[in-house]
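User: My collaborator and I are trying to settle a disagreement about how two of our proteins should look. Neither of us wants to argue from intuition anymore, so we agreed to look at predicted structures for both before our next call. Could you fold the first one, then the second, and keep them clearly separated?

Assistant: That sounds like a sensible way to settle it. I'll keep them separate. The first protein:
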Amino acid sequence: MNAPFPFGFPWPTAFYLTLYVVTFAIHVAFMHYVIAGSSYLVTVAVRNRPVDPDRRGTLLRDWMPLMLSAAITAGVAPLLFVQILYQKPYYTANLLLFNRWMAILPALIVGFYLLYLLKSPLATRRGMWLRVVITAGAFGCFFFTGWSWTENHLLSLQSNEVWAQHYAEGRTRFWTITLIPRLITWFAAAFPTLAIWLAWQIRLTADDDTENHATVIGRLALTAWIGMAISVIAGIVLLVMDPPEVRQAVLGIAGIPWMLLGIAGVAAQAIGWWQLRGVGRLCRSRLTIISAGCSASILAGAVLRELMRISRLDIAAFYPKHAAAAEVGGLVVFLFFFAVNAVIIGYCIWLVRSADQLAPTDDAPAQDEVHSA
């Protein structure tokens, strides 16, 4: 890898790597909301506050099923591309983990319905302990899914000898010490993303300016700062624990531009939240800067994660399969439906925003009442 990612690869490989990283970054943005948001809902349930002062808990309960659906849907594309890129390692890890790996499907189904149950009157009437059980169950399902994906990913990076030993022993779990810093890195990184999601939601759904106060900004800023600090520290620990070839790939020509982008993204978020605290309201311009920094960090993290995988696999052995896949028709159809769906989604968002702006408020009399008066 003598060029910045994704250059230096044959064009079919570079094409699939680019699509994989971009679609994976989109999935991560929604996944962060779900995993960090569900963990926050557990704390809300335990504290059992009768009033939600800054509406974070209310927004999370209302939006969580939709965001989980978005995370699952956005995860389909990277799941398809990773199968093209790394057929043998990916399928081998799936088969070796077997039922342990397939358990993510019922876990997601249970977690999905628990989120809807949390919004039901039953959860409201039955008291704190039922809400604690529901939120903890949902978080457990999503954390189990993330754990399983990480476990599968690490197993796919092992040698044939490790795979043979794993199969011979009949194990359905794979353990390595690097699993801990890797999980901590991705879990902590979810909280800065959640903070910016909630900031936009509070700003765009506020009834008046009184909700854009310093208290909620301070809480969101602290959430983002702590999440970024823990994620960076855990990422450094992971890099130190990984083999030398991994550090060479991340800190070499292929990875250093993306490492700098990630650092710039973290700096933009840290400074943006500090400035937002000084302003004392959820300013659109500063939220946009923080969002851009968060997006840059997620994309850079996705690229560096891929470089860490490539450095431990003989990716050149997959070049012929990538070239063969690129010769199969369907790209034009894929791009067509991608554009169509993007337009439809944008139109739906516009319809919802337009309906929300036209809806009468409690202070404004309905049109019929005005005419009758």
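The second protein, kept apart from the first:
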Amino acid sequence: MNPFSQALFDYHEGNCEAAFIIRRDDGFQQPVPASFFFDSGNFSQLEIKALDECRGHVLDIGCAAGRHSLELIRRGLKVTSLEILPELEVIMKDRGLTDVVVADILTYSGRQYDTLLMLMNGIGMTGDIDGLKRFLRNAHDLILPGGQIVCDSLDVSITTNPQHIAYREKNLASGCPAGCQNFTMDCEGSFSMPFRWLHIDFPSLACVCEALDWEATLLDREDDGHYLCRLTERYASLTR
């Protein structure tokens, strides 16, 4: 089982200390408690703002244990919960989610929504700029007229951590985006395959969006570079 899924299963089955470790390819590592993905009563201010922006039928992308989906349902919204890891479907359904989709958002199709929600640095799951472009192209087919994408990311230029600065500068020197990062995860000695995650600053995101007929609007920004934005179709009639 994927280490992330294993940690969530361990917590779901009663291990309150369950956690996984995320490791970057430069040696940086950070333990992450599984409890964070179940805590529906401790949202950040940015998350609260994002949830407030949701409307209509919401597709919660990368929902993990469903903390955002459950909150939106509590607020009376219709929610579809999407997760790429099939084993997490059991947890989501145990927690009361009934409209669950196991799929890769880069290729998912067949239904349309008023809001696509991508939180916890959610746009990063696209992996790199090419993946981001694939997602934005595909998202035109997932959005109802007048719909929106609500997502967050991180501007990696706003840091004083020497290790993060060195990683950013190495990326730029090699021609990679500053926030393109390579990770593995492990849980109790079980390691995941390497994967990429994209942190992208808002101006760069807005530029990519403009080229693919999306308009990006900044909704909130925190001092650490974490920000929330809304993406809407620029020419809805031409993209369908």
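Some points you might bring to the call about the second protein. Helices lie at 3-12, 45-53, 67-74, 88-94, 129-139, 162-173, 202-211. The chain has a mean pLDDT of 95.
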